[in-house]
Amino acid sequence: MLAGGDYLLWNWSLQGSHDVLALVAGLTLPPLAIALIWLLALNTARLLARAARPSQAHSQAQPQARSQARRRGMRLPQQPAQHEQHSGGEQASSSSKLAA
User: Fold this and answer.
1) How does pLDDT run across 8-46, given as a tens digit for each residue?
2) CA angle 17, 19, 22 (to 5 degrees)
3) Which end of the chain is more exposed for a tag (fewer CB within 10 A), N or C?
4) Which residues contact 35 (CB under 8 A, 6 or more apart)?
5) Looking at residue 9, what is its pLDDT?
6) Where would I find the H helices in 16-56?
7) What long-range pairs does 91-94 form, CB within 8 A, spacing at least 24?
8) Would you say residue 35 lies in a domain?
9) Which of these, 27, 48, 46, 49, lies nearest to 38 by C-alpha position?
């Protein structure tokens, strides 16, 4: 929007014989146009990345279903944890292996 306004100001000042204003608007136009193109490309890449990413609605729906089932007194089958925790003895042995 800023680049478009600068372009319109530049054209108006050229046609109206406002030399200093035309010079200032003309010198600021290329950096504004480059910034506009860069931001458009960045937003396009973000939208494409978001469209390629799997939907998170499915992964968020399961915890909500569990909390609603708990409120109703129902039990849902447990899902295996993604990160299994080790007992204290296993952690000590693994850390001693790293230290040795």
Assistant:
1) 999 999 999 999 999 999 999 999 999 999 999 999 999
2) 100
3) C
4) 3
5) 94
6) 19-52
7) none
8) yes
9) 46
Q: List the Cα angle 36/38/40 in 5-degree steps.
A: 70
Fill in the DSSP letter of residue 81: P
Is 38 a member of any domain?
yes
Q: At what angle do helices 2-15 and 19-52 cross, to 10 degrees?
A: 160
**Which residues 6+ apart lie within 8 Å of 21 measured at CB?**
9, 13
The SS3 call for residue 13 is helix
Residue 94 lies in a domain: no
* Assigned token pair, 41: 């490309």
Q: Is residue 47 situated within a structural domain?
A: yes
Q: Which domain holds residue 29?
A: 2-52
The total domain count for the chain is: 1
At residue 12, the pLDDT reads: 95
Confidence of residue 72 (pLDDT cuts 50, 70, 90): confident
